[in-house]
Predict the structure.
Amino acid sequence: MSATAGARTVAGRGAVTHEGIFLAEQLWPIKGQLVLALVGLAIGGLMGLQQALSRVGIVLHEAMLMQSYYQGLTVHGVLLAFLFMFGFGNAFVSLAAIRGFERPLASSFLLQGAFWTMLAGTLLAGYAILTNQATVLFTFYAPMRANPLFFLGAALLVISTLLTALNLVLTRRAWQREHPGERTPLLGFVSVVTYVMWALASLGVVILVVFFLLPWSLGWVKTTDPQFNRILFWFTGHPIVYFWLMPVYISWYLMVPRQVGGRIFSDSLVRLAFLLLLIFSVPTGLHHQYVDPGIPTIMKVVHLFTTFAVVFPSLITAFTVMAALEDGGRARGGTGLLGWIRKLPWGDPSVAAQLLAMIVFILGGATGVVNASYNLNNVVHNTSFVSGHFHMTVGTAVTLSILGITYWLIPFLTRRELMGRRLALVQAWLWFFGVLLFARGQIAAGLIGEPRRSSIAEAPWREVLDVGLDHWLTAIGGSFMVLSGLLYFVVILWTLFAGRPLARPLEMPVAEMRFGARETSPLFDRLGFWFLVAVLLVAVAYIPLIVLYLPLQSVSPPIKVY
Amino acid sequence: MRIEAYERIFMVLAGLMLVLGIVGIGIGALVAGVHVPSPAGRIDPRTLSTTSPFDQPGLRDLGGGKYEAVVIARAWQFQPDEIQVPVGATVTFTLASPDVIHGFVLTGTNANVMVIPGQISQVTARFDRPGEYLWVCHEYCGFGHHLMYGKVVVR
């Protein structure tokens, strides 16, 4: 019997628990990282209010104890894009791997190390940002000077994810030793692939921080090359969005189907989608640099093709996840072409949040294809269109899904019942309508030419650029999202401090398979081989670029501009 | 490996859609002539104001309705921040930065380029209608980022 079949039987019976595989010494660093993530969400999310209201001329940064709009924007970006995402990713994927391999992680030491490095990174970077010594936004483009502690903190956050990656790979290896000749269970497989992809993707920013920005900010080297530094940043900067997205894909593919009473469409297609994400996520960074002056045009074209290739697995996701949802809706008595949608358990806040997140992702993905479309990018590059886009992808498809996941994850970890379920439902719908208004406003303003990440309330050109009603849509929609975030924390704190103890511990939802692992080609399981393919593609996409770009143009000393 | 008929149909359609997208981009570039900015040379930001052509920023008439606007993007102003051209003019903007990264987006046109210390940026726009075209710095460049703008007056 394959391991996948074993998991199915166990989950199907519902009576067998997995108590023994969740060790106390592994649970506390997981919970700790989740807490760090939620602290990041709370503070970073609150800052969103100043950005939203800036559109209608309201200056809020002083009320939020920030010295400038841009300090608040740095808090928003760094805490949400790095701390919130890394903390949740580490915690959730570690748990998924434990459940997937049905054994503890290989190393409690590495897991605890991941927590301590994340805490240290948060404190160092947080200190630098809050004292206005690193108002450089989450992109920290050279030659903008920042306190070295900021770069050190950012490096520690990345190291925390790499410790998790190492732990997951070691766990898979330990599982293989215990189950010779067996196929890697699907949940374990997707968990490991997510972090292996990220390990490769993080190479750019690791080189950038360790070899360029840290020594440069410490004064050990006098100058750096801003264009080359941007190449390194976007080497990681695009695939990081898949690192945000893939933990949520794990939930959409393997857990939501269970929550709605459906089955996963097929084992092969899930593995194929994750392997394609591993292969194509990284060699695509230049599509963020279509309008950079120093990059050979031919290489921009190469990255156009790889970027379109990485859209493909997301399209597969649209099919596979939808098929699993339909399976669930029909099992619940849904009929007709669309009748199954109404039959899905919309009253479950965890499900509703994630279904709404999926709907928004359709629009987010479509606008992403616009950004990726080479010359079409001329119209939207660095305009509000882009922030409209990524608040529908990472800001909703990922974030709202994470909120939905925590609606079962926190009861699972604390053994307390989720309180305020109706409030949680209101939270999900408020976010959904909020982001639609917000993104509509941002996208329309961006098409007119409004720049992103600008203190619009203080801009002298605000009246010249006739954006009109769209600014109000952004402000109202953004305020809805912040309000929704407040409701979320009411629900979570209520659950943590006053939640009724559960009679029986919760099971992690893991769905059964319509077409199982036995039909899947054994080649899919050879992770080392696929990693090598990914490395080769990265080499094809980046080595000619670097060769054509060299020699380095190291001409920029650090400059403080805030 | 087992692939269901529905899966296969969906994958083929998804693939076709992406191919169609690439074809559209190709037509835009090769037929309509919409290109992304290409490398236009390197420059040392520390000596920018004494290096040609940035030692004399401003508008140059190249004849035949063609112009070159040499613009320095510095924290936190464009220099010059206003140029005047007649209707029908084609203007090539040549930009560079002496300090941090800036951006240049010219509203109402397809001109959009990053201005990165060490590199020279070039974009071209044609102005067929009279009016004022606002340009704005679109990359965060510090405390006064939102104060950086300029305009093309077309008469």
Remarks:
- Residues 375 and 413 of chain A are 48 Å apart (CA to CA).
